Amino acid sequence: MKKQIIMATASLIIFALAVGYASIIGKSGPETLNIRSAPEQASIVIIDEGASKIFEGKTPTTVSLEKKKGYFRGKKYTVKISKPGYAEQTITVDTRLNGWYLGGNLIFGGLIGWLIVDPVTGAMWTLDTNELNVTLEASKQSKGTDSYQFGIVLLDDVPQSLRNKMVKVSQ
């Protein structure tokens, strides 16, 4: 019985040393980004740091984004949200180090987790946000119904050349 406990404990220690802790607790594949806008049905274009279009669609939506660009390199995305009559918004979604990568490998995973497993699988990274809620503002051109501006001026301030074009309004 004692031998089995020692073997089980040794197996757990070897397992913990052989794998990265972020790979055990965190996700090594793509991460989900939820995107919503007000008003809805806004166009979305997501471009990565290499200028490759990753996604194109409408809000609301959910997109799976890769977190690793390469060995010890995280990805970065530019999200453009637009709708006719509204000002376009551009948001950067970056990656940051996963807390499990930092703390978990310090306690359990060791150098193999820090230097090999988690960097190779991408589990060392996490998106800096999992949700975008964007409120689009009406563009300046669409706020008014036409481009005319009205004001009150004194008759003495109206040039003579324009006075003959004026129409008298009855009182």
Give a nutshell description of this structure.
The chain has 171 residues and is α+β, with helices and mostly antiparallel strands. The protein contains five helices and ten strands, in the order H-H-E-E-E-E-E-E-E-E-H-E-E-H-H.
Overall form: rod-shaped
* Number of H/I helices: 5
Give the terminus-to-terminus CA distance.
109 Å
Radius of gyration: 30 Å
Fraction of helical residues: 25-40%
Task: Give the key terms.
171 residues; alpha+beta; five-stranded antiparallel sheet; three-stranded mixed sheet
Describe what you observe in this structure.
With 171 residues, this protein is of the alpha+beta class. It has one domain. Helix content is 31%, strand content 32%. The protein contains 5 helices and 10 strands; from the N terminus they run H-H-E-E-E-E-E-E-E-E-H-E-E-H-H. The chain has helices at residues 2-18, 21-25, 99-121, 140-143, 160-163; strands at residues 31-38, 43-48, 53-58, 61-65, 68-70, 73-74, 76-82, 89-97, 125-127, 131-135. The strands form 3 sheets. The chain has a 5-stranded antiparallel sheet with strand order 3-2-7-8-9. Helix 1 (2-18) crosses helix 3. The longest helix has 23 residues, at 99-121. The protein is rod-shaped, with a radius of gyration of 30 Å. The protein starts with a helix and ends in an 8-residue tail after the last helix.
Secondary structure elements and their pairing?
Blueprint: H1 2-18, H2 21-25, E1 31-38, E2 43-48, E3 53-58, E4 61-65, E5 68-70, E6 73-74, E7 76-82, E8 89-97, H3 99-121, E9 125-127, E10 131-135, H4 140-143, H5 160-163
Parallel strand pairs: 1-10
Antiparallel strand pairs: 1-4, 2-3, 2-7, 5-6, 7-8, 8-9
